[in-house]
């Protein structure tokens, strides 16, 4: 029975021992896992970090690859200097004297990505996988007015849905950010309500701005931003600002110049879901099942979108 005193997210992970927190959408998504990783480690769990990577992983030395499509990135991994969020995170973890390997998956389709996850889960003895999304576009089922940037998120969701792991969850951080990519957030809330009716919504959990978890998160984001000055994370810049109490049209990088932002406290809240329940509500995830490359994923999403009538977007009524 769910209880107000124990957040459902932590209740779902209560019996687990080894948790893999994995960025679902590429880029800096794994940074959204940091507050949760700190809390779980403090609670005695073994936590591993992974990310679907936008880095040019083909430039890594052969000894970085621990299995097919699985790279173990450490502070000393040789790779691109201009954009390598996973290595930046590994180096920050080392500075903090924390376990400092971040696993990275290349941009592949569902079948090879699932195989990569399966190898990593088996090697690490993982009994829970938590996909972490910076934003909320992983919650789009397919008929919304806009899907944001669905290719990577849906590939990750489909890949992990096919794993035989006791606990599989999805956590979103950064509500509102995906408006930049055409997401209608009234439709996000409609989807959350539908998932709640299905029993797949595990509630919302605020990350206190003065907590140790949040302080470490902001520190890691700042470290990552400094390591990638030409492509700092728009998403985590806004979330970090929200955890400091910033609101409104707050720009933390020149990359957002010319756009109007809406930094707000909802960006600093984890929205949590049962992964299998979320996957069941997708209208097109089955079409991605046998893909081997992300171009296939993108073309199949486009084909699906061309066949259906989209839900009309609504503005917030208040």
Characterization of the model:
By secondary structure, the chain is α/β, with parallel strands linked by helices. It is built from ten helices and nine strands. The protein has a nine-stranded mixed β-sheet with strand order 3-4-5-2-1-6-7-9-8, with helices on both faces. Helix 2 crosses helix 7 (212-227), helix 3 crosses helix 7 and helix 7 (212-227) runs antiparallel to helix 8 (234-243). The two termini are 33 Å apart. 48% of the residues are buried. The mean pLDDT is 94.
Structure at a glance:
The protein contains ten helices and nine strands. With 318 residues, the protein is α/β, with parallel strands linked by helices.
Topology (SSEs and partners):
Elements lengths: L7 H5 L5 E6 L10 H9 L3 E7 L12 E3 L2 E4 L11 H11 L6 E4 L4 H15 L3 E7 L15 H12 L5 E7 L11 H13 L3 E6 L5 H16 L6 H10 L25 E6 H7 L12 H14 L11
Parallel strand pairs: 1-2, 1-6, 2-5, 6-7
Antiparallel strand pairs: 3-4, 4-5, 7-9, 8-9
Offer a few descriptive terms:
318 residues; alpha/beta; nine-stranded mixed sheet; 9 strands
Instruction: Going across the biggest sheet, name each strand in turn.
Output: 3-4-5-2-1-6-7-9-8
Total DSSP helices: 10
- The N- to C-terminal Cα distance equals 33 Å
Low-confidence stretches: none
**What fraction strand?**
15-25%
- Rg, nearest Å: 18 Å
Q: Biggest sheet, in brief? A: 9 strands, mixed
How much helical structure, as a percent, in the residues? 25-40%
What is the overall pLDDT average?
94
Broad structural category: alpha/beta
Question: How many beta-strand segments?
Answer: 9
Name the overall outline. Answer: globular
Order of helices and strands: HEHEEEHEHEHEHEHHEHH
């Amino acid at each position: 029975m769910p209880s107000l005193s124990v957040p459902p997210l932590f209740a779902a992970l209560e019996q687990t021992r080894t948790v893999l927190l994995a960025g679902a959408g590429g880029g800096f998504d794994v940074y959204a896992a940091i507050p949760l990783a700190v809390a779980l480690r403090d609670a005695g769990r073994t936590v591993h970090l992974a990310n679907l990577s936008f880095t040019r992983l083909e430039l890594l030395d052969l000894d970085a690859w621990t299995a097919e499509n699985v790279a173990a990135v450490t502070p000393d991994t040789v790779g691109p200097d201009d954009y390598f969020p996973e290595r930046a995170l590994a180096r920050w973890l080392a500075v903090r004297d924390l376990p400092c390997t971040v696993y990275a998956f290349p941009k592949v389709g569902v079948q090879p990505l699932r195989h990569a996850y399966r190898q990593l889960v088996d090697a690490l003895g993982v009994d829970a996988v938590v996909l972490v999304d910076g934003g909320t576009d992983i919650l789009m089922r397919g008929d919304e007015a806009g899907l944001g940037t669905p290719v990577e998120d849906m590939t990750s969701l489909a890949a992990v849905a096919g794993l035989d792991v006791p606990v599989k969850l999805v956590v979103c951080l950064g509500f509102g950010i995906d408006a930049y990519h055409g997401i209608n957030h009234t439709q996000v809330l409609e989807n959350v309500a539908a998932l709640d009716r299905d029993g797949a919504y595990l509630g919302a959990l605020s990350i206190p701005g003065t907590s140790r978890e949040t302080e470490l998160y902001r520190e890691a984001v700042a470290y990552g931003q400094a390591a990638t000055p030409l492509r700092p994370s728009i998403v985590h810049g806004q979330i970090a600002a929200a955890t400091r109490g910033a609101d409104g049209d707050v720009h933390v990088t020149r990359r957002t110049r010319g756009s109007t932002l809406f930094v707000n406290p909802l960006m600093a809240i984890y929205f949590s879901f049962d992964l299998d329940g979320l996957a069941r509500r997708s209208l097109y995830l089955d079409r991605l099942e046998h893909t081997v490359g992300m171009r296939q994923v993108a073309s199949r999403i486009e084909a699906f979108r061309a066949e259906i009538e989209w839900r009309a977007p609504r503005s917030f009524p208040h």
